[in-house]
Amino acid sequence: MGVVGKGFAIVAADTSAVHSIMLHKNNEDKIMLLDSHKLVAASGEPGDRYFEFGGLIRVEYVQKNVSLYKFRNGIPLTTAAAANFTRGELATALRKLSFASVRPSVKTPMAFSVDFLVSVMFMIFSTLIIDQNPYSVNILMAGYDNESGASLYYIDYIATLHKVDKGAFGYGSYFSLSTMDTHYRSDMSVGEAIELVDKCILEIRSRLVVAPPNFVIKIVDKDGARDYAWRQSVQDVTTAAV
Amino acid sequence: MARYDRAITVFSPDGHLFQVEYALEAVRKGNAAVGVRGTDTVVLAVEKKSTPKLQDTRSARKIVSLDNHVALACAGLKADARVLINKARIECQSHRLTLEDPVTVEYITRYIAGLQQKYTQSGGVRPFGLSTLIVGFDPYTRMPSLYQTDPSGTFSAWKANATGRNSNSIREFLEKNYKETSGQETVKLAIRALLEVVESGGKNIEVALMTREEGTLRQLEEAEIDAIVAEIEAEKAAAEAAKKGPSKET
To answer: Which residues belong to any copy of the Proteasome alpha-type subunits domain (chain B) (predicted)?
Structure first.
């Protein structure tokens, strides 16, 4: 979920990495730094958040293209431009085949050649296998631009793009959006915004049947994007309890 | 010679690749560029031939960043440079994406040199008419590096080097006067070397440096360059006076 306040934007995400009924880890950071003044919170299939077989490069690819723009043009992309670029990528992939495809600006490393063969096999047996969604990742992009201040963009998995003041994804959004509707005001201070986020987290923890135990909150303002806090109710246990 | 026009770069009977040598000629006509490697600083200085009054100098930068920790200066055909620099920048980001690591200076030099070589062995293309000086800090060891590539696609590491116009005289100067320097001394050495062939003055030189702590390229302002040039002139004058002084007392 994300919230825009006075000169800053806050994004919070749960930190559970889940695989069907099992929790892999509960301190998985799903909010990436896109550049010094942009944050991207991505939720959805792990294969779509970072480069993995079957998933196309998503947020990391966007990150590297944002950097490339900065080197080519001497100035960083605006948040709006980065959001539109991301949406464009999602939109293109929406109607593409869901097999790993090679882009002109990125090379597929040798290590993945085995997976490529498997992709080819998938193509042959594709009629027997249910296609995955090209992108099942929902994104909230928050950024600060000197000219236009803080902004938040809502990009969902079918390439919908909206500039919003508050947004949320996932089952928790059913609860947090209502909470935000009641308590959100424009131009909140950092303290007030954090209170709102905490209220949402409380709502999720008390009402969602599979509530994630831990959350991470990050903030972006004129001084850049950085971690703000973690809200942990369960610490990661490194050794099995006896 | 119908048989010889599929590949433009073909061997001559005495083993030369004339196109590559002509490309080196193009480099020799380009702006002088100097690179110096210090213990904790790397400096690139490029000659700025008289800038037209109406031109916006910011759009004609000769020293560019390829990535946060790697920079490049070149001598030769500027249009070719744009293409090469663009490909190198893409490669830097591509490397970061697929290997989750920034490029080493050697890697990107090898990539650029490889690209230059490819164009000496393909059909229907001519070699890139430029030599590059690539500087940077290795992302993990934080060691400074200076590399040079040329149109034939060879590359090597240097402590200090020059390319472009009058590069031989600059290199001679550097060979005579090079010593391990750090910080401002490295900048002065680079500027002194360039001043051998260029009129002195902040508006005729473009200087950029990278230090180990900062890690990113910093272009020097004209005023800063003027100040350093003034220092160098003062030092030169003092050295001259010292030489003349004792010899008068005979």
So the answer is: 4-26
